[in-house]
Amino acid sequence: MVETLLLGLERIDTSYIEEMQLNGQHFVYSLTHVYVPFVMPYFYMTLLQCLGLGMKVMVTSELISQTPNSIGLQMYHSKVYLDVPGLFAWTIVLIALVIVFEIFIQRMQKKIKT
Question: What is the pLDDT of residues 63-110, one digit of tens each?
Fold first, then answer.
């Protein structure tokens, strides 16, 4: 996540930064009008990637620790008892959750842009 944000900072055109310095703008103005708008697309991309990976890690940790009433435990039981339709159903539920979160983040991104 930090690496992607640093990449976004590196890709800011230096002419914008030089113009802010020549005009004598305060750091807060430069931060809110140059740095943040240029870094936000990288932030949203990173947020979406972390969300997908986080869901996978969460379900895997639930599966390993066998937390009661969790998706990971239900998937584990489906696997152990060879309940293939149940396993596919829980996989579809996870995919749907990730899609819902991605849509929410994309709408949030559009709302902030407008």
Answer: 888 889 898 889 999 989 999 999 999 999 999 998 998 898 888 888
Cβ atoms of 59 and 18 closer than 8 Å: no
- Dihedral class, residue 82 (left if φ above 0, else alpha if ψ from -120 to 50, else beta): left
Beta strands in 1-114 (DSSP E): none
CA distances from 45 to 1, 51, 86, 92, 93 (A): 9, 10, 32, 23, 23
> pLDDT value at position 84?
93
Domain spans in the chain, listed from the N-terminal domain onward: 2-113
User: 71 and 92 in contact (C-beta within 8 Å)?
Assistant: no
The two most distant CA atoms of the chain are separated, in Å, by 70
**Does residue 44 sit in helix, strand or coil?**
helix
Distance CA 94, CA 56 (A): 9
**Three-class DSSP labels, 16-39:** HHHHHHHHCCCHHHHHHHHHHHHH
